[in-house]
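Handout, page 2. Input:
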Amino acid sequence: MNKFRVLLAACAGVALTMSVGAGLANAGGGTISGTVKYDGTAPAPKPVEVTKDKEVCGLHPHFTEDLIVDSGGGIANAVVVVKGAKGDMKPTDVTFDQKGCDYVPHVLAFEAGSTVKIVNSDGILHNIHTYSEKNPSFNMAQPKFKKVIEQKVAQPEVIKVTCDAHGWMHGWWFSSANPYYAVTDDKGNFTIKDVPAGDYEVTIWQEKLGEQKQKVSVKAGAPATLDVTLKPKA
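Output:
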């Protein structure tokens, strides 16, 4: 009986050590959050003429999406990446939908090595066309009976995507070299969690305004704030 009690106590001690160790590991990272805003008065999105498949594409108005700014100045669809941060990559399947003759989401960010599932929710002929340098480009028709096309993106890169069947459809894939990235929401807000403690350079990318770099320090278990203002190109 005594031996049995000793064994139970030893097992409990191991479990407690593992639990504490896991807690310390989780507490080793910090959170970066902030807002990406536009410097000045942003131009209003321009209406886009629907010239094809109006029975599907014309069900709602279309506007240019290369610069979307809300009433408070927040920029949507900017990508924020913590350069040099090391973490375990977890490639996965991500979805890029063709819905209402728009790309949803307009900017899709994922870890390099992930597989993009290109979905045709419209039930009409689309033609997915990517423009890349590090990854193979492809140009493929997607008729209504071909609901999903899968494409693996192995290398980190910013990839432009268009539809050769509908000239107004433009989108982007952002293949990241690490798991510490975020895409701003419709108010320009972003959050990146569990960033290892350290001093970093952060890159902010926006398709029309280009790139900006900022410095940020992350402390274990603590929040860091990074507010950025992007200026129009001269």
